């Protein structure tokens, strides 16, 4: 952690950390770095290289579900980075979100966080295949969890605002139920759902990649249920 506080060696230190945080033993050693790595991702003034390197380490650490709840304050930022024009940051953010979505206990928080603005525009055949696969995987996992666990976005999502961005916090007149519903709508609201159904059908019928077809089918079936 001391090295990560030094501006001159911060980027190479994080990059080195990403290369060694691959085994469970090393991941557990790196656990104390979570807060500062998250701050590098959250900080809008951080350069893209540092943000990307931090995302790589956070993704590796997230292969162990033990500390996933500590990622909740970062979820809105991760969704925001899915809208990034930097392909590498966009992809790494999605990889991390997919890792977190593998933990069923994280699903309510992932649904409660404000989703990407450009989400539905990515679910098309012209999207980079690595991006498209992870978008479909993430959405299919979330949609299936909603169906299987019978989640009600108005009632079952977290009431605390730890997964929200400051601009989603309403005044006292706004109810927690309304806030949860608004954020959920960004991912699976009626208009988004209808668009995703049509888009996923086109993908599983026409896309050449079998894994993209499979994830598109998973999402399509969950949305149609």
UniProtKB/TrEMBL annotation:
<keyword id="KW-1133">Transmembrane helix</keyword>
<protein>
    <recommendedName>
        <fullName>Armadillo repeat-containing domain-containing protein</fullName>
    </recommendedName>
</protein>
<dbReference type="InterPro" id="IPR006911">
    <property type="entry name" value="ARM-rpt_dom"/>
</dbReference>
<keyword id="KW-0812">Transmembrane</keyword>
<dbReference type="InterPro" id="IPR016024">
    <property type="entry name" value="ARM-type_fold"/>
</dbReference>
<dbReference type="GO" id="GO:0031966">
    <property type="term" value="C:mitochondrial membrane"/>
</dbReference>
<keyword id="KW-0496">Mitochondrion</keyword>
<keyword id="KW-0472">Membrane</keyword>
<dbReference type="Pfam" id="PF04826">
    <property type="entry name" value="Arm_2"/>
</dbReference>
<dbReference type="InterPro" id="IPR051303">
    <property type="entry name" value="Armcx_regulator"/>
</dbReference>
<dbReference type="InterPro" id="IPR011989">
    <property type="entry name" value="ARM-like"/>
</dbReference>
<feature type="compositionally biased region" description="Basic and acidic residues">
    <location>
        <begin position="159"/>
        <end position="173"/>
    </location>
</feature>
<feature type="domain" description="Armadillo repeat-containing">
    <location>
        <begin position="7"/>
        <end position="147"/>
    </location>
</feature>
<feature type="region of interest" description="Disordered">
    <location>
        <begin position="155"/>
        <end position="178"/>
    </location>
</feature>
């Amino acid at each position: 952690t001391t090295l990560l506080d030094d501006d001159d060696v911060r980027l190479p230190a994080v990059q080195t950390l990403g290369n060694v945080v691959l085994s469970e033993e090393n991941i557990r050693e790196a656990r104390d770095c979570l807060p500062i790595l998250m701050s590098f991702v959250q900080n809008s003034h951080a350069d893209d290289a540092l943000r990307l390197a931090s995302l790589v380490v956070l993704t590796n650490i997230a292969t162990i579900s033990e500390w996933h709840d500590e990622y909740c304050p970062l979820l809105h930022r991760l969704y925001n980075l899915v809208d990034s024009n930097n392909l590498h940051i966009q992809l790494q953010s999605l990889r991390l979100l997919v890792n977190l979505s593998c933990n069923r206990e994280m699903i309510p928080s992932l649904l409660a966080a404000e989703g990407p603005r450009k989400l539905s525009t990515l679910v098309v055949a012209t999207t980079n295949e690595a991006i498209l696969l992870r978008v479909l995987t993430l959405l299919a996992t979330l949609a299936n969890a909603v169906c299987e666990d019978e989640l009600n976005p108005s009632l079952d999502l977290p009431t605390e605002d730890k997964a929200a961005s400051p601009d989603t916090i309403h005044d006292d007149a706004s109810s927690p139920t309304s806030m949860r519903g608004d954020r959920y709508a960004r991912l699976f609201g009626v208009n988004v759902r209808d668009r995703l159904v049509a888009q996923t059908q086109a993908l599983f019928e026409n896309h050449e990649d079998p894994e993209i077809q499979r994830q598109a089918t998973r999402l399509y079936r969950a949305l149609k249920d």
